[in-house]
Design brief:
The chain is built from seven helices and five strands. It has helices at residues 3-7, 44-47, 88-98, 108-118, 134-143, 165-168, 171-185; strands at residues 13-17, 34-39, 51-54, 63-66, 72-75. The chain is globular and about 60 Å long.
Length: 197
């Protein structure tokens, strides 16, 4: 049992940042927990929150992402955040000011500079960083067998087209799920016609 599992009834404050890929319920926590959700599309995290701080989707904000090769990449917003939505760093910066512990960043560029100070590879956009873990992994593999099973628990991802808050909010993707399930039940049946709003 994890430390979280052991102590979650005593947790008083939970801050979920775009955390929608979970099975948490309010009843998992004590009666006096206060939950804040910061994110977009009002998915699982928003449903259990006391306060929702509307964030921006990845298409609505600039950011730095690391792909599966380890390449740092800059992302640019395609559209402005919807409604009252704000970019994540601006929400956190505003909260720091309200809390009386103002963060020393007034722009995304200042945040990126600090990120580069902490982890220089974030400033090498588009280049692959060499891995430094191979030697450690080899040494570790020779010392002892893993303490837990390395068997992959989830070998199949059903409904993969509904795996994030954006696709779950999409009427088109919901139609695709219906069509896929109907096909799985009977592949010879007349295909479901997709309707769009």
């Amino acid at each position: 049992m994890s430390e979280f599992e052991k102590n979650k009834k005593s947790i008083k404050f939970v801050y979920l940042i775009g955390a929608d890929e979970h099975n948490l319920k309010r009843s998992d926590f004590g009666d006096d927990v206060f939950i804040v959700y910061q994110g977009h599309h009002g998915d699982n995290g928003a449903e259990i929150a006391d306060v929702v701080l509307p964030g921006a989707a990845y298409t609505e904000k600039q950011g730095t992402w690391v792909n599966t090769e380890g390449r740092a990449q800059k992302g640019y917003n395609a559209v402005a955040p919807q409604g009252e939505g704000r970019t994540d760093w601006r929400i956190i910066r505003a909260l720091s000011e309200v809390a009386g512990r103002t963060l020393p960043y007034d722009s995304l560029e200042e945040i990126r500079q600090r990120l580069i100070e902490i982890a220089p590879h974030f400033g090498h956009y588009g280049s692959v960083e060499s891995s430094s873990f191979l030697k450690q992994a080899l040494e570790l593999s020779e010392t002892k067998a893993p303490s837990k099973s390395l068997e992959v628990k989830q070998k199949e991802l059903a409904d993969y087209w509904m795996t994030n808050s954006i696709s779950r909010a999409s009427p088109t993707m919901a139609e695709c799920v219906k069509a896929a399930r109907r096909y799985k039940e009977n592949p010879h049946k007349e295909p479901l016609r997709l309707t769009t709003a």
